Amino acid sequence: MAKHSAPVKRSSEAPQRAWQRMLSGRRLDLLDPSPIDIEIADIAHGLARVARWNGQTSGDHAFSVAQHCLLVADIAKASRTKLDRRWELAALLHDASEYVVGDLISPFKAAVGIDYKSFELRLLAAIHIRFGLPATLPEEITRLIKRADRVAAFFEATQLAGFGHAEAKKYFGLPGRFAPKSLIPLPATAVEQKFLDRYASLKLAVQ
User: Fold this and answer.
1) 137 contacts 146 by C-beta, under 8 angstroms
2) Bridge partners of residue 29, in order along the sequence
3) Which residue has the higher pLDDT, 177 or 132?
């Protein structure tokens, strides 16, 4: 009787893949991201296809992270007279790490208890370096962008995500003197191009 060979066992020590291939052909190491593997086309493409609010927004299209970043850049620019265009670019890129990690809502991060922040900051530092910004932004600019981010979240929450005014105020604060913006979620291809166009208009400021 013929003997059957034992099945080959896969080693439990086999290394896990820790990189992602981008459409540009780059392979981004998620554990040790290098600026040279970061391309604006990959960021724009990815962010235009990542939905804010886990997709729980009204409209024919998801409200994407790319559209949110454009909104935050608009608010930051409007809130500071003669804002240096480097910092407007930083506002545009403030959630750029989400082209890799996605937009995990704060309640989910709190529920699983994993520290995503250090990973996101490491990736964002590489993104900043790639596009001529300081790895760590000045504290004043960080505060400005966070404020613009909260204002954007208030508008998104009340116009698209089903929040009442009082509930949005509780979580995001009031938008202050900023006039309400009418938000209409755009198709992915349209917002991807808008993101690339805004980047192109700003990149000379950091060269």
Assistant:
1) no
2) 19
3) 132
Instruction: Return phi, psi of residue 167, to 5°.
Output: -65, -45
Binning pLDDT at 50, 70 and 90, where does residue 31 land? confident
Please provide the DSSP assignment of the chain as one string: -PPPPPPPPPPTTPPPP-EEE-TTS-EEESSS--GGG--HHHHHHHHTTSBGGGG---SSS--BHHHHHHHHHHHHHHHSTT--HHHHHHHHTTTTTHHHH----HHHHHHHT--HHHHHHHHHHHHHHHTTS-SS--HHHHHHHHHHHHHHHHHHHHHTS---HHHHHHHH---TTPPP----PPPHHHHHHHHHHHHHHHGGGG-
Q: Tell me the one-letter amino acid at 31.
A: L
Alpha carbons within 13 A on the beta-carbon side of 150: 15
Tokens found for residue 188: 């992915």
pTM, to two decimals: 0.85
Q: Check if the beta carbon of residue 49 is closer than 8 Å to that of residue 65.
A: no
Condensed to tens digits (0 to 9), the pLDDT of residues 47-83 reads 999 999 999 999 999 999 999 999 999 999 999 888 9
Compute CA 35 distance to the chain's CA centroid, rounded to the nearest angstrom: 16
- Give the bridge partners for 28, in sequence order: 20
